[in-house]
Design brief:
single chain, alpha+beta, 4-stranded antiparallel beta sheet, globular
Length: about 180
């Protein structure tokens, strides 16, 4: 009889661990995409893939996210997620802005861009610290992106065919980028 009880106990514990892991796998993406804009076309698998690449986990406080690596940073109150069709293919690329002065300094947030390739894989591009502003100008079929932050001279990134790279600085007023 005791063997049967041990077996039932082990199975119950295993089932509990599996259920908790499944719950955590859906909690994180749900938290990340809770306030998302223009991403209705993304499947649950797309959302899990994007979440997984960011290296986040559900926070110890309800409704927060934390970096999975022990950064020592406090939990984030969600994230900004926005879909934007940068290449006019009728499918959104996905911007994720993570708010953390601990990780991103005075800019207050870091910007990541996810682009889905022809084989269905999402590729993460770290655009730096700041706030993204999609520009009207484009390179190689993708819109340029300005990363705004502290200061009066903001970098503009352009598509190289494989990634976004620095193109030029954009002054907020005449002379703001002199010497840069």
């Amino acid at each position: 009889m005791s063997t049967l009880i041990r077996w039932i106990t082990r199975c119950s514990l295993l089932a509990l661990l599996v259920c908790n892991a499944a719950l955590a796998a859906t909690e994180g993406p749900d938290l990340l995409f809770a306030q998302a804009e223009n991403v209705a076309a993304l499947s649950a698998a797309d959302r899990r893939d994007i979440y997984g690449q960011l290296g986040l986990k559900p926070g110890s406080d309800p409704q927060t996210l934390e970096f999975a690596d022990d950064t020592g940073c406090p939990p984030m109150q969600g994230a900004g997620v926005q879909g934007e069709d940068l290449n006019h293919d009728q499918y959104p690329e996905v911007f994720v802005s993570l708010g953390s002065t601990c990780m991103y300094g005075n800019a207050g947030s870091g910007v990541y861009l996810f682009i889905k390739d022809d084989s269905g894989h999402w590729h993460m591009h770290n655009l730096g610290a700041g706030i993204h502003v999609v520009q009207e100008r484009s390179h190689k079929g993708y819109a340029d992106i300005m990363i705004g932050g502290p200061g009066f001279c903001q970098p503009v990134l352009s598509w190289t065919g494989t990634t976004y790279a620095f193109d030029h600085n954009e002054p907020e007023h005449p002379g703001a980028c002199d010497g840069r």
